[in-house]
Write a structure and sequence with these properties.
Number of domains of chain A: 2
Largest interface: A-B, 31 and 34 residues
CATH topology of chain B: ABC transporter involved in vitamin B12 uptake, BtuC
Number of helices of chain B: 13
Oligomer: heterodimer
Order of helices and strands of chain B: HHHHEEHEHHHHEHHHH
Number of strands of chain B: 4
Strand content of chain B: under 5%
CATH topology of the largest domain in chain A: Rossmann fold
Helix content of chain B: over 70%
Structural class of chain B: mainly alpha
Shape of chain B: globular
Distance between the termini of chain B: 43 Å
CATH superfamily of the largest domain in chain A: Response regulator
CATH class of chain B: Mainly Alpha
Largest sheet of chain A: 6 strands, parallel
Helix content of chain A: 40-55%
Chain lengths: 340, 297
């Protein structure tokens, strides 16, 4: 009973404080020297989230700002408190908001002076203060598709079978993963329209054993290249490729050396570069809230890389991908975007 | 054909860790201990298997470390629930949470990585090709070429079934569960039998963990037991502890897990993810009906 009273008192006080804060005239300029990187998942995936952390580390070093990272570990109960903690501490919040887009909109409406940068999806609040970074993952996935499509046709490469089947393992069905697979399919079929893409969804981003099992099933039905788009669970896909002597394509960071000789390419998504770019624009004053920033091949934030200790991909495939890449950058080849 | 063989092999690999942990769990089940710590024991085993294998460059050391780590967990369980008579359920939850936190912490401190640790330095447990059998078409592909721990599991299943139903220890074990006072008065302390059941359970869960991180994949990722310890608990309760029943349920679960992925060719993945759980419910239903019939007759 006593506690309940105390809590209600605290609530009243904090409500007054918030109201007063809202009314107070804002004279000081918006400073941006405290940055939070708030992610729905956890660091340590050697991929997507870690690449964002690299960008955060870079701005901390270059601009001398204080940074903090809040990991929600896919725990829905953490989303709202983490957002609250982030606005309480930082001026600039880089957020990966899968699963809590609505809470993000609410908080952004409540704190219009804070800079919110949403990464990887487009989130727009009613006051239009959230800036969204939208990666054109279709462009790099299309290139990955070309590489996979050419590789499955090239039976001179060890263990490649004559069947025109390639595979993909996604973490879950969501618009980003669907965009990846859509463009990967288009890329592969641009090489040969008869190439078939078989897909498995894990419903999980962490269970490496399940990732491996899904990849083994794809290899069993005749796929010889599997594209993994499943964060940490995808490590199982790469190990499956090594075990069968077949091939995989990594995602988000350069994973080509994780299983040397079997990860032929990586479709990278440089979240860190995007973070650095946006922060740089905040720093030099060119930042506009509410924009949707499109990062494609041209920006360098998405790309396909082949650098590896052991490269088994024939040079012809690498050259062909480089040619298509140049056409996309020049604008002579337009990649169809995925529409949910 | 290759697909069917893949599904069967997938079933065997997915069933192995569940079966191992459940066999450990069934010994404590017979001894009258409500042991839910298999998940934590398995996770500790998986992590220390990687430690042993990585620092000594030997999978044997990996298995040894896994079993030792899991035994430490078992000893903590014994200390609390058998010696100090605390609630088994609370002790189990505490151990499971402790294992998750401790392995995550050590992963970050020792290997300086978050999430997952993999590297060429980890030596995995070898796969075994059985001579003669491996040359038989079809049968060879299914029976041969599995991980060493898979074959160990088969032997352990037979051993546990024998231990529980055919030995004096097994009789005392069951007595410790049915009527501990009677066992005590006959001159055998029930607590001693319980302690042994937990020690064997610890060793088997350690082996299950080693299979996860050195057998199926060669890496450690945070929370990599991913609920398998809980499924093993369900398997034990579902068949009232019968080791052969547990083996069947584990295989069923392993099969439906792979089947779920396979069915994605025709069904949306949201539905196929339900397959293992629907299969478990159906098994529970069938088992209850059968038991009801035997009770009535």
């Amino acid at each position: 009973m006593k506690n309940a009273k105390l809590i209600s008192l605290l609530l009243v006080v904090s409500m007054i404080a918030i109201a007063a804060g809202g009314c107070a005239p804002k004279e000081e300029q918006v400073t941006a020297d405290k940055v939070v990187y708030l992610i729905n998942g956890a660091l340590g995936d050697n991929a997507f989230y870690d690449s964002g952390q690299a960008g955060i580390d870079r701005i901390a070093e270059e601009f001398g700002v204080e940074t903090r990272t809040i990991e929600c570990n896919f725990d829905a109960g953490q989303y709202e408190p983490s957002l609250q903690a982030a606005v309480g501490y930082a001026d600039v919040i880089f957020v990966i908001s899968y699963g809590f887009e609505d809470q993000l909109k609410e908080i952004a409406d409540k704190y219009p002076d804070k800079i919110f940068v949403n990464l990887d999806t487009v989130v727009q609040n009613s006051k239009n203060t959230i800036t969204s970074v939208d990666f054109i993952e279709e462009e790099s996935a299309y290139l990955a598709g070309i590489a996979a499509g050419m590789l499955t046709l090239d039976t001179s490469v060890p263990n490649i079978n004559p069947e025109k089947i390639i595979g993909a393992v996604g973490g879950d069905v969501d618009p980003v993963i669907s965009a990846f697979i859509f463009a990967y399919t288009n890329g592969a079929q641009s090489v040969d329209p008869d190439v078939v893409v078989e897909t498995k969804y894990l419903g999980d981003w962490e269970d490496t054993a399940k990732g491996k099992q899904a990849a083994l099933q794809l290899y069993d039905i005749g796929a010889d290249v599997v594209f993994q788009i499943a964060a940490a669970a995808g490590m199982g896909v790469l190990q499956a490729a090594g075990e069968r002597g077949l091939y995989a394509i990594g995602v988000d960071t350069n994973q080509n050396d994780i299983v040397p000789g079997h990860v032929v390419a990586s479709d990278i998504k440089d979240v860190g570069l995007a973070i650095w770019n946006v922060y740089n624009s905040i720093n030099d004053g060119s930042y506009k809230p509410g924009e949707v920033l499109e990062y494609g091949l041209k920006s360098g934030a998405v790309d396909v890389v082949f650098d590896a200790q052991v490269q088994v991909l024939p040079q012809a495939i690498i050259d062909k991908v480089a040619e298509a890449r140049q056409q996309i950058i020049d604008g002579t080849l337009v990649i169809e975007r995925y529409v949910p | 054909m290759k697909i069917a063989i893949g599904l069967i092999n997938g079933m065997i690999t997915a069933a192995t860790p569940i079966l191992l942990a459940a066999l450990g769990g069934t010994l404590t089940f017979y001894a009258g201990i409500f042991n839910i710590a298999m998940e934590g024991m398995m996770l500790a085993g998986a992590f220390f298997a990687v430690i042993g294998s990585y620092f000594f460059n030997s999978w044997l050391m990996g298995i040894l470390f896994a079993v030792l780590a899991s035994l430490v967990m078992a000893v903590i369980f014994i200390l609390f629930s058998v010696v100090l008579k605390t609630d088994e359920f609370v002790t189990g939850i505490g151990l499971n949470l402790f294992a998750l936190g401790a392995t995550t912490y050590f992963l970050r401190q020792i290997f300086k990585v978050k999430g997952a640790f993999s590297g060429p330095g980890i030596v995995s447990v070898p796969n075994i090709e059985i001579p003669l059998i491996k040359d038989i078409p079809l049968v060879g592909e299914i029976l041969s070429g599995h991980n060493l721990i898979v074959y160990l599991t088969l032997i352990i299943t037979i051993w546990v079934a024998y231990l529980v139903f055919k030995t004096r220890f097994g009789l005392r074990l069951r007595a410790a569960g049915y009527n501990p006072t009677c066992l005590d008065t006959s001159g055998v302390p029930a607590d001693r039998v319980r302690i042994w059941s937990l020690i064997i359970c610890g060793a088997l869960c350690g082996l299950a963990g080693a299979y996860l991180s050195l057998g199926y994949v060669t890496l450690f990722s945070e929370n990599m037991s991913a609920g398998r310890g809980w499924i093993s608990l369900a398997a034990v309760i579902l068949v009232n502890g019968n080791p052969w029943g547990i083996a069947l349920i584990s295989l069923l679960f392993g099969f439906s897990d792979g089947l779920g992925l396979f069915l994605q060719r025709v069904l949306p993945s949201q539905f196929t993810s339900m397959v293992p759980y629907v299969a478990t419910l159906i098994a529970l239903f069938v088992y209850s009906i059968r038991r009801k019939e035997t009770v009535l007759s």
